[in-house]
Structure formats: structure tokens, C-alpha cells
Design goal:
Number of helices: 20
Structural class: mainly alpha
Order of helices and strands: HHHHHHEEHHHHHHHEEEEHHHEHHHH
Shape: elongated
Length: 508
């Protein structure tokens, strides 16, 4: 009995070790897993983590069965089959898809943190329908035909828009709606139509306001939610089976949409790295967005980040605290290249002495909080594989802009732009943004902003600099007060000189 148990444990350890080793002997990075959001985090605002239009993956399907939309997904499955038939002489057979997904079932289930007591048949059905829904919506799966010369071309189609109820409303959400429609028209949400083709009535119908709101909901549910995901390997495999000779990988279509979402919101610069330098494939669509959030400081040589030395840091000060310590806030633009350029909102920079804090502009709309919360949830579930860069930035902003006065100051400096009702509403969202998140600000591995915090804290603790900053703001902000102060100083100096000469003349 004991020897049998020991052998089973040895086999388990051997399998675990082999799965974490590369072919060349190097340690493989841990995989990104799809996990449920912790209750401590979820309870702050549950609506930020649940779908409102469509459920994707086993987590959401079991909790929100009314949003499964299997009828819509069956239509998308038929569209994928039709597109594959028009593209290739060998039609896509459902049997082949099911067999391939069955072969992948074990690895797909391992992409989730929890086990699901779901029969294999039902689980494979979910995967196939969800993958086709995502492919038609964002993967440029349209009716592809072969030209006589063998080149591909795309016939007219509209995808990325699925009917359903609307949950988006409110004055401050119009900015997000306007941006998203512009992105989808350009980057695949509304797929290209040939100039010589007339506009179909369905296209005109989908240009309505209801259609726009539904488009926002689809993008939000499919891209932004940490629990509402399926592994990208499923989507990619169905695409490969449907279009085996396609010269465009499935990832490229999704990357274009991700680049558009991040670029148009000015929170990350779209970048494209060609193979073989391309980063590992995304684990899911939220991870695809997260891959763009990597501070440039981490790309520098080891040791340039500051390490773990220096003074211990606690919480950040507020923007007003730094302001009265003489720190100047400056908007740092995002650039597409160049030495020292900011490529995402995470690239916060401070001058050598801590006198100027350069922060990339954060444009806030109705969906900003949802995106940040779910990106942090991804990091909290995968601290080693995903890091904690977004969490560090959110902690930084939540403490920097924790009051309406702080938000007003940062808005005047161009660091924050928002379309919400007032500054207090923005400050309230920031104050609750990181509740429940596990984060150690004094750990250099977790907090990439630790060197920035140390410089600012050193300046804040300097009594001389704080006194000089107070003097400058109190007396030199108004030019007349400055002139009066200079005149008073000159008068004081003249009085002292006169007194000295009077004493000297008396002694003589």
C-alpha cells in the first residue's frame, strides 16, 4: 500500500516537472488560467464582472444561463461552415470539429482554475458554439472565395453585431459609445464592404442607436470580462480547420481589434511584433489586451529599475500632497516609437529630483473601471504569469486621485480627462478601484513604480523643499504679491545696511 502510494506520488511529481520544462531544459512560464473573481473583490461592484448581453465559457454559462444565446450561436456556427465551404473545396465537417475538440478537452479544462461537473458532450458543445460566436464577431470570418489567380478576397458581410437587449445608457457613456463605433468600423467590428456593392437593408438597420448599444455590450462582454472567456487555443483551432490555407492567422484579426480598442482610448500604443519575436499566444481575449500593458521600464537592462533597495514605501500621497511639496504634474504623451517614449498609461515618469511627475493622460468613460477591474482580476489569479503591473498602476492612481480636489488638479494638468458627472464621482470610483486586491507596494517585483514612489516620498519629507514650495505658491503665484515681497525684502536689506553704517559712524 505504502509503496503504491509513493509510486503514484512520484508519477505525479514527474508529470508536474515535465510540464514545467521546455524542450531545451529552461523553465517554462506558468500558464494563464481563467478563474472566478474573488468574493472580496467582487463584492465592491458585482456588475463590473458579469456579462449583460452574452455568456461565454463555463463560468458564465452556468451562472447566467439566460444569456447563453445558443440560437444566435447556432447561426454563427452555420456562418463559419458556410464561409469554410466557400473558401475551400473540402467542406468543414462538424464531426471533425467535435473530434478535434474532444482531443483538446483535457488541455482546455486545465485552462480553468476550477473543475466543472459538466459532461464532455455538453462541454464540447459550449466550446464550439462560443468559438464560432467569437470568430464571426471579431475574427474576420466572412464568406471568403478564391479568385482565379488563387488570391483571397472578402465578400460583403457585417459581423460583430448580435441582437439582444440593451443595458448601456446615461450621458457619460456616450463618449465610450462614439469611440467604440469608430473603432469597429475601422478594425473589424463592422467588416469591410466592397465599394461597388450596395448597402443592404440589414446594414442600415444595424446603424441604429440600438445596434450601437448592443455592439458596445458585445465587445464589453467578450473582451473585458475575466470570467467570461474561453481559451484562445479553441478559437484558433476552429479557425485553422475552417480555413486551413489562409495566409492570415486568427490572432491577427483579434489583434487589430485589440490595437484599436487600446489605441483609440489612448491607453496603449498599438504595436505589432512579427514572428519569431512575437510574444507567446494570448491565453484568452482579455489576456490579449493585458499583453499591451507592459511598462517600458521593464524592458530596460537589469538593474535600471531601481531594485529593492532604498527607503521603504507605504501608501502613495495624494496629488494635493505632492503639489504642496513642489511636485509639478505634467501630461506625458503616448508615442509610437523613439527612445524613452511612453507606450501605455503605465509609463509614469519622474524627474531626477522628483520635481516633475509625468503621467500619460487617462481618458475615463463608463467602461474604464470595468476594464481595469478585470485586468487586475486576471493578475490576481495569475500573479507569476501575468505580473502585477496594472494593479500597481491602479493602486497609484487610486491614491493619487482619491478626492475631488485631487481629480480637479489632475484634470487641470491634463493627466485625467473624463466625461462623468463631476470630479467627486471620479474620485469615488478611484477610491474603490483596488479594494480587495492583494498588493505589496514595497516589493520591487510587484511594484514597478517603487523607484518613482521613493523619489516622491523623499521630496515630500524634505522640510526645506516643502517650505520653499509653500512660499512660492503663497506669495509668488500672484505677481503683485511677489513684487510686494521683493520690495519688502529690499527695504529690509536697506534698513539693515543703514543700521550697520549708523553703528560704524557712531564708533568713529
Amino acid at each position: 500500500m505504502a509503496s503504491l502510494l509513493a509510486q503514484e506520488l512520484r508519477d505525479g511529481l514527474a508529470g508536474m516537472n515535465s510540464s514545467t520544462e521546455r524542450a531545451d531544459g529552461e523553465s517554462a512560464p506558468p500558464p494563464i488560467v481563467i478563474d472566478r473573481v474573488a468574493d472580496m473583490t467582487r463584492n465592491v461592484d458585482k456588475q463590473e464582472y458579469v456579462p449583460h448581453h452574452v455568456s461565454i465559457g463555463p463560468y458564465s454559462r452556468r451562472v447566467h444561463p439566460a444569456l447563453a444565446r445558443d440560437a444566435d450561436k447556432m447561426v454563427r456556427l452555420q456562418e463559419v461552415i458556410s464561409a469554410a465551404a466557400d473558401y475551400s473545396a473540402a467542406p468543414l465537417r462538424l464531426e471533425d470539429c467535435v473530434v478535434e475538440l474532444a482531443r483538446m478537452e483535457h488541455s482546455v479544462r486545465s485552462c480553468y482554475k476550477h473543475r466543472f461537473d459538466v459532461p464532455g458532450k455538453e462541454f464540447l458543445r459550449w466550446l464550439l458554439l462560443d468559438a464560432c460566436y467569437i470568430l464571426v464577431g471579431f475574427g474576420d470570418v466572412v464568406v471568403k472565395r478564391r479568385r482565379p489567380d488563387g488570391e483571397e478576397h472578402t465578400a460583403e458581410a457585417v459581423n460583430g453585431v448580435l441582437p439582444g437587449r440593451s443595458h448601456v445608457g446615461g450621458r457619460h457613456k456616450r463618449l465610450f459609445l462614439h469611440r467604440l463605433l469608430h473603432i469597429l468600423r475601422q478594425l473589424g467590428g463592422i467588416v469591410r464592404r466592397r465599394p461597388d456593392e450596395p448597402t443592404a437593408p440589414s446594414v442600415e438597420m444595424k446603424a441604429s442607436a440600438v445596434h450601437r448599444r448592443e455592439t458596445v455590450e458585445v465587445v464589453r462582454d467578450v473582451f473585458y470580462l475575466a470570467e467570461n472567456q474561453i481559451p484562445f487555443i479553441v478559437v484558433d483551432r476552429i479557425y485553422q480547420m475552417a480555413f486551413p490555407d489562409s495566409r492570415t492567422p486568427a490572432l491577427d484579426a483579434f489583434a487589430r481589434c485589440a490595437h484599436g480598442l487600446l489605441g483609440k482610448y489612448s491607453i496603449a500604443t498599438p504595436t505589432k511584433v512579427e514572428e519569431p519575436e512575437r510574444s507567446p499566444e494570448p491565453a484568452n481575449l482579455l489576456h490579449l489586451l493585458h499583453m499591451h500593458f507592459r511598462p517600458t521600464v521593464l524592458a530596460r537592462p537589469t538593474g535600471s529599475q531601481g531594485g529593492g533597495g532604498g527607503m521603504a514605501v507605504g501608501r502613495w500621497r495624494t496629488a494635493l500632497d505632492y503639489y504642496f511639496a513642489g511636485v509639478t504634474f505634467k501630461k506625458r504623451p503616448l508615442n509610437h516609437g523613439g527612445e524613452g517614449a511612453a507606450v501605455s498609461i503605465l509609463d509614469v515618469k519622474v524627474s531626477g529630483s522628483g520635481g516633475t511627475l509625468e503621467v500619460p493622460q487617462l481618458s475615463i468613460d463608463a467602461e474604464t473601471w470595468r476594464l481595469f477591474r478585470n485586468l487586475m482580476a486576471l493578475e490576481q489569479s495569475n500573479p507569476v504569469a501575468a505580473g502585477s503591473h496594472v494593479t500597481a498602476y491602479c493602486v497609484f492612481m487610486s491614491q493619487l486621485a482619491s478626492t475631488d480636489t485631487d481629480v480637479e488638479l489632475l484634470s487641470r494638468r491634463g493627466v485625467i480627462v473624463h466625461g462623468l458627472g463631476n470630479h467627486s464621482e471620479v474620485a469615488g470610483h478611484f477610491a474603490n478601484l483596488c479594494k480587495g486586491a492583494v498588493f505589496e507596494p514595497d516589493d520591487a517585483e510587484q511594484n514597478y513604480l517603487r523607484p518613482v514612489c521613493q523619489k516622491l516620498e523623499k521630496r515630500f519629507r524634505s522640510r526645506l523643499r516643502r517650505w520653499m514650495a509653500w512660499l512660492r505658491k503663497k506669495y509668488f503665484a500672484n505677481p503683485w504679491l511677489a513684487v510686494g515681497l521683493v520690495a519688502a525684502v529690499v527695504g529690509l536689506v536697506c534698513t539693515v545696511v543703514q543700521a550697520v553704517y549708523s553703528v560704524l559712524s557712531y564708533k568713529k
